[in-house]
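Students often ask why we bother encoding 3D structure as a string. The short answer is that it lets us treat folding as translation between two languages. Here is a chain of 593 residues written in the first language.
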Amino acid sequence: MSSSSSSLRFILPTSRIQSSNRRKSRSLTITQTLTTPSSSSSTTTTDGVDESRLEPRVEKKDGYWILKEKFRQGINPSEKIKIEREPMKLVVEDGIKELSQISLEELEKSKSTKDDIDVRLKWLGLFHRRKHQYGRFMMRLKLPNGVTTSEQTRYLARVIKKYGKDGCADVTTRQNWQIRGVELPDVPEIMEGLLSVGLTSLQSGMDNVRNAVGSPLAGIDPLEIVDTRPYTNLLSQFITDNSRGNLDFTNLPRKWNVAVVGTHDLYEHPHINDLAYMPATKNGRFGFNLLVGGFFSPKRCAEAIPLDAWVPADDIIPVCKAILEAYRDLGTRGNRQKTRMMWLIDELGVEGFRSEVVKRLPQQELERSSEEDLVQAQWERRDYFGVHPQKQEGLSFVGLHVPVGRLQADDMFELARLADEYGSSELRLTVEQNIIIPNIENSKIGKLLNEPLLKDRFSPEPPILMKGLVACTGNQFCGQAIIETKARALQVAEEVHKLVEVTKPVRMHWTGCPNTCGQVQVADIGFMGCMARDENGKICEGADVYLGGRIGSDSHLAEVYKKAVPVKNLVPLVVDILKEKFGAVPREIEEED
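And here it is in the second language, the structure alphabet:
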């Protein structure tokens, strides 16, 4: 496939054409009132929006998109930092090399260079861990569809191995790698190394498009609707301009997520994305219905809603471009809690937003949504752990449980070896922070299952309460996290497992703060870090407990069940919840003689 291609053609397998009821739009409540520069005369659109509101707020100067002077009143600090110096100049003008040669002590002396290390470097995927790992950075990679190679995995392992106990890696809830312990002087060399193995960290943080998510079983699932890899690869190539940086979309009002659905299982979690492509046919053509606006934030969480639009498979890039341009041009840049794309949709109305998208399409036409959804509404989500046959005869994949997504360098070296020895030198990452080894000859399965890594670390058959366990970074590394999450998530799950028995997996998600990187709102049981008071009134680490999150065609966001529970009280609370809500029964405990 040509890297410059902007369209793809696919032949729809007729055996996969299945219809289901189209998801109905939820009602919207407009909750934000926005002010724009006054005009001596104004008119309103058919949607009741003042025409002056539809003036683009950004303009292109010297190759970069910047906020117009007239719209700079009341903007947030991040917007001011972008105006003071364009973050992408660290890439385009090779500013990172100069920055990496200056000591942190010198960089701290100037607000501008301090903003470089704490904010602008996020455009390069680098996050300074000022609070807990001063002088070290987390680096986030782009990994479309979660597909990575053994060569890439070894390279990342070598990088973190250098940093000893400070170096490790995480599988994220957006199906990509994050590596930790990175030091600024090493960054130019690391970035060159990433390019040499086909990776990039560009545009993976701040006001950019995040990793393009797809089915972790793409191309190997006997029951898949469509192989999502060509689409997610094309989206990633477009968004990053083939890892060079796409300056048209590096100044969004806020971050922006995209997913392409390929299975009935909705492994991709489409309803929490700003744009989700949902497979559907129309008049015998294969394409996608579009969902828009899904997001999480401390102040508001919203599920994506139908745009009432369908695009043929060839047109995924033009519509993505048009939606991004509408958001970039019209999105507000004041309170950061009210700048995600759904706020703009609320303000303009779905039809008003859709009209702005249409204006930005090459032909200024966008078909209405199709009634021929291919995702089956009544579908029991399959478990990908363990051994499963692929659509390719004689091959299987093995799903491995990576406890809360954390890996050390030696784990990554060993995974790369296993992918080479047993599979096709490929690994798949999942949004639940686990790993799949595909393309294994059935004759090799027995030997693979006896490998020490699978016996001791990454089990293909984890305990049932571990299967759906997800945790963000927590305060071990993240300065915004209020509590420790990864070790605590494992501890609570292990203790609860000793006390009760459940018959089906229960998805438990942990997040260290209200930013909800651990996505507690999609969990059966969610834990959001907060401060609480113990029985003596003393302040202690705690969690707000959420219940009722669902993923799939009947998706639903979890709601708060109990606030500010001290962490030491979580085990008995979870035991009670599992008994009352999930049919758990007490385990029989054998007494010692």
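Translate back mentally: The radius of gyration is 24 Å. Keep this in mind for the problem set.
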